């Protein structure tokens, strides 16, 4: 089964420098060798709308802070609001696509943390790059580095920790905005948004020794924590651009059982997006700067 949406094929490793320029380092099996500069849109109220050029927040902090490793799975994959927040707070981005041959570091000593984003794959797939990513999660866990898994990335974290990933027993999906409720442990951790944006057909079981932080509608397990690692089933990184691409290019998902109709996504984004964005800002601040090691 497949979960998060995306588009096929990809570029090699990309590093976004502090001056806003893309440095492209291509692997041997990468299909395209044409450097790409890409803009990731920002939600209204972002400190750097429209472009990722110079002008990051912080008094020169970006000269001292280590980059954050971002693992994506498609050519058109965007780190969205996660990337926007990191850049605005002085963290350079090291974007890699293991699916297309990019290597994963043996240590995160040179990184502030790591994020694995979503993709059309399943954490149960037997593809070599999926297995490598699942196994690689041992690196941030062993080193106590901040790790965040979003959608597919959260499911990979769950599998790495011994949990299971499966489709809904009644065939339901979550596509669009859905209510989100915090557990008592989640409430003690922080305040959560009332609704979160979803795009998946599989969910995870919370691994042993992990703590469930939030619940959802069709898929009860929406967020969990294990020491310095967090897994989110929903997509707080969503932007107008990302949402528009998913809804228009994969409109068939919006008529699956349990999905929100396509014409409700943007109105709901205007209604619930600001709250989700505000939550993401608070979450990332805690995640990267004061990780839990309980």
Task: Give the amount of beta strand, in percent.
Answer: 15-25%
Straight-line distance between termini: 33 Å
Kindly report the spatial arrangement of strands forming the biggest sheet.
2-1-4-3-5-6-14-13-12-9
Give the name of the CATH superfamily. Answer: Class I glutamine amidotransferase (GATase) domain
Structurally, the number of domains stands at 1
Helicity, in percent? 25-40%
Radius of gyration: 18 Å
Going by CATH, the architecture would be 3-Layer(aba) Sandwich
* Biggest β-sheet description: 10 strands, mixed
CATH class: Alpha Beta
| Contiguous runs where pLDDT drops below 50 for at least 5 residues | 1-62
CATH topology: Rossmann fold
Query: What is the average per-residue confidence, as pLDDT, rounded to a whole number?
Result: 82
Number of helical runs?
7
SSE pattern: EEEHEEHHEHEEEHEEEEEHH
What is the general shape?
A: globular
Give the total of beta strands. Answer: 14
Secondary-structure class: alpha/beta
Q: Can you put this structure into words, describing what you see?
A:
- This protein is α/β, with parallel strands linked by helices.
- The chain is 25% helix and 20% strand.
- The chain is built from seven helices and 14 strands.
- It has helices spanning 80-88, 128-136, 138-143, 152-160, 184-189, 240-249, 265-289; strands at 13-16, 22-25, 68-71, 93-96, 113-116, 147-150, 165-167, 174-179, 181-182, 195-200, 202-204, 211-215, 221-226, 229-232.
- Strands 2-1-4-3-5-6-14-13-12-9 form a ten-stranded mixed beta sheet. The protein has a two-stranded antiparallel sheet with strand order 7-11. Strands 8-10 form a two-stranded antiparallel sheet.
- Helix 1 links the parallel strand 3 (68-71) and strand 4.
- The protein is globular and about 45 Å long.
- The two termini are 33 Å apart.
- Residues 1-62 have low confidence and may be disordered.
